[in-house]
Amino acid sequence: MPDVAIVGGGPAGLSAALFTAKNGLETTVFDTDETWMHKAHLFNYPGIRSISGSEYMELTRDQVSDRGADVRVGEEVIDIESDDGGFRLETSVASETQRADGDAVDADGEYEADYVVLATGADRSMAADLAIDFADDGTVDVDLDTETSIDDLYATGAMVRDEEWQAVIAAGDGASAALDILSKEKGEHFHDFDVPTDAP
Ligand SMILES: Cc1cc2nc3c(=O)[nH]c(=O)nc-3n(C[C@H](O)[C@H](O)[C@H](O)COP(=O)(O)OP(=O)(O)OC[C@H]3O[C@@H](n4cnc5c(N)ncnc54)[C@H](O)[C@@H]3O)c2cc1C
């Protein structure tokens, strides 16, 4: 059972997964690979001068997988139910589904998770199915940590922005969700701070 299930593997979802997996939470990302990043070329992502969106996706998926997340490309989440103290997810597996490391996915299509991070881009249908609060402008209503009106359910990236859509903002939202989850798990404010001696 994943501690954290992430629905959508664009910049928002992968960023959330990077932080939670790196810090010891069992993390699964489900992604149908329709990210806008495949249409983009980034010149405005700080620290990276120029990169195609698809190359960014490949690098980031590898980075997140290296840190221990299970990144399932081709597995669509079709239903989420909020249970007492957790969530149940149902997925549909495309025949070509594979993990970022190239292994085939052996999925049973049903999962439970303590936390769910929605990161489905501008597609807010999954959020609407969950009957969470929406803002007047049609975006999903979240607090500064990107938590929705349902405890332990987060919404990140394009779905919480009214047109201010940038990869670095989406990645920041994912990181916010992850730090809030990690703070809840650790029972105090959590900082994912590394120092030069941490580097290999
Ligand atoms: C033409 C174009 C050019 C752009 N250029 C730039 C640029 O130069 N710089 C910049 O910063 N930004 C750019 N952007 C914007 C950038 O691509 C977005 O801000 C960013 O991709 C949003 O990230 P996200 O993680 O919120 O959503 P997305 O990247 O859209 O990712 C959402 C993911 O969720 C998946 N998904 C949806 N529903 C489900 C489900 N039920 N189950 C499983 N998976 C699901 C989708 O398949 C997708 O892979 C551009 C966008 C476009 C369209």
From TrEMBL:
Per the record's keyword annotation, is Electron transport included, yes or no?
no
Q: Which domain of life is it from?
A: Archaea
InterPro entries, per this entry?
Answer: FAD/NAD-bd_sf (IPR036188), FAD/NAD-binding_dom (IPR023753), Ferredoxin-NADP_redctase_2 (IPR050097)
Give the Gene3D superfamilies listed for this entry: FAD/NAD(P)-binding domain
Family matches, as SUPFAM superfamilies = FAD/NAD(P)-binding domain (SSF51905)
| The FAD/NAD(P)-binding domain, residue ranges | 3-123
Protein name per Swiss-Prot or TrEMBL: FAD-dependent pyridine nucleotide-disulfide oxidoreductase
Give the species this sequence originates from.
Natrinema pallidum DSM 3751
